[in-house]
């Protein structure tokens, strides 16, 4: 089989120009020690240790990409009530252009998780968001801006977290786009069942997990390979990557390519899907062999789950180290 030349890959992607569209999310991790059940109330008592803030949402894949390519442009929305723009801009590398529109009567999305640090056990989460869909007027303003700059970019990555940015107007616009569209439509606790991949009907590359595949079938008991083929047949999705956690992944192009997981003890799976989607979409755009795309996706996932949330971006060195540890990608 053909070897994967990592240096050549890095050289190829370096000059690509990528435009990302999606919701901005700030991830807050509050580290606490569990003291036990409170004596007067049926609640868990904890002691505060520390807290950290990371850039999530569309800015997580943007940061991963910025380690590999020269020019990343993000179009997003922030909340009118508390933009957090100074913090966001302070965390971005110079090769990331961040452009945002304001969503009225909304905060910038914050997801706060309380973590027991010994085993990174998540105790509970609080979300600050208004997930009402943006107005058609704001949708057309975003489209007008995309139309102005889209020809300067090689591919567009859609990061749809289901928190109100992707109106019917925007979904229809991207489904009809003549640009290379990479699509990630996420299912999470806030949008469960309300943000299906099937709301889009066309894309060049789609990344999804098994839950996001199960929902359109309304069943947990499906054959994943057959189901992903049917999704592709019913849509205009040219290529689909299905991530299956500990069971690896399936990449579907002209045929299905299966690859085994490289992970045994993940630290944190939050953000891993964003990393896999963003970096694997580059291989799809460059038309790498299907079996290499499936193997590469698992390597990215293995590196990503060793990082706490979106605290750090995936670097060239981290991937190279893992490729070396796994005897390359032959």
3D architecture notes:
It is globular, with a radius of gyration of 20 Å. It has ten helices and 13 strands. Helix 6 packs across helix 7, helix 8 packs antiparallel against helix 9 and helix 9 packs across helix 10. The mean pLDDT is 91. The chain has one domain: Ribokinase (UDP-N-acetylmuramoyl-L-alanine:D-glutamate ligase, 3-Layer(aba) Sandwich), CATH 3.40.1190.20. The chain is of the alpha/beta class and 330 residues long. Strand 11 and strand 12 form a beta hairpin. The strands form two sheets. It has a nine-stranded mixed β-sheet, with helices on both faces. It has a four-stranded mixed β-sheet with strand order 3-2-6-7.
Layout: helices, strands, pairs:
Blueprint: H1 6-14, E1 17-22, E2 24-37, E3 44-57, H2 59-66, E4 71-79, H3 85-90, E5 96-103, E6 109-116, E7 121-128, H4 136-149, E8 155-160, H5 168-175, E9 180-185, E10 202-209, H6 210-217, H7 224-234, E11 236-243, E12 249-252, E13 256-259, H8 272-285, H9 290-304, H10 316-325
Parallel strand pairs: 1-4, 1-8, 2-6, 4-5, 8-9, 9-10, 10-11
Antiparallel strand pairs: 2-3, 6-7, 11-12, 12-13
Helix pairs in contact: 2-8, 4-5, 6-7, 8-9, 9-10
**Average predicted local confidence, pLDDT:** 91
CATH class: Alpha Beta
Give the fraction of residues assigned to helices. 25-40%
CATH topology: UDP-N-acetylmuramoyl-L-alanine:D-glutamate ligase
Radius of gyration: 20 Å
Total individual domains: 1
Q: So, CATH architecture?
A: 3-Layer(aba) Sandwich
| Bulk shape | globular
Topology, number of strands: 13
CATH superfamily: Ribokinase
Widest sheet, order of strands = 5-4-1-8-9-10-11-12-13
Topology order in helix (H) and strand (E) letters: HEEEHEHEEEHEHEEHHEEEHHH
Terminal CA distance: 6 Å
Report the sheet-strand fraction. Answer: 25-35%
């Amino acid at each position: 089989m053909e070897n994967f030349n990592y240096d050549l890959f890095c050289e190829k992607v370096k000059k690509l120009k990528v435009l990302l569209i999606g919701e901005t999310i700030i991830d807050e991790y509050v580290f606490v020690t569990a003291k036990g059940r409170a004596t007067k109330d049926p609640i868990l008592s904890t002691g505060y240790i520390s807290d950290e803030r990371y850039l999530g949402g569309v800015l997580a894949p943007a940061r991963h990409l910025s380690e590999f390519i020269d020019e990343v442009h993000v179009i997003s929305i922030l909340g009118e009530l508390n933009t957090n723009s100074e913090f966001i801009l302070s965390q971005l590398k110079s090769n990331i252009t961040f452009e945002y529109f304001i969503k009225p009567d909304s905060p910038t999305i914050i997801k706060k998780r309380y973590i027991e640090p010994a085993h990174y056990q998540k105790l509970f989460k609080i979300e600050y968001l208004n997930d009402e869909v943006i107005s058609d007027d704001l949708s057309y303003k975003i489209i007008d801006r995309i139309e102005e700059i889209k020809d300067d970019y090689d591919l567009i990555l859609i990061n749809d977290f289901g928190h109100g940015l992707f109106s019917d107007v925007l979904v229809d616009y991207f489904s009809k786009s003549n640009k290379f569209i990479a699509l990630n439509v996420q299912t999470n606790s806030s949008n469960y069942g309300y943000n299906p991949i099937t709301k889009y009907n066309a894309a060049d590359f789609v990344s999804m997990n098994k839950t996001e595949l199960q929902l359109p079938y309304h069943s947990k008991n499906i054959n994943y390979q057959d189901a992903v083929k049917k999704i592709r047949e019913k849509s205009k999705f040219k290529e689909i990557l299905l991530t299956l956690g500990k069971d690896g992944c399936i990449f579907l192009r002209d045929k299905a390519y299966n690859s085994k997981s490289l992970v045994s003890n993940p630290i944190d799976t939050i953000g891993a899907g964003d990393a896999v989607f963003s970096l694997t979409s580059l291989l799809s755009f460059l038309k790498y062999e299907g079996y290499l795309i499936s193997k590469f996706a698992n390597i990215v996932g293995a590196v990503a789950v060793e990082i706490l949330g979106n605290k750090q971006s995936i670097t060239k060195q981290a991937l190279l180290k893992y490729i070396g540890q796994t005897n390359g990608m032959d």
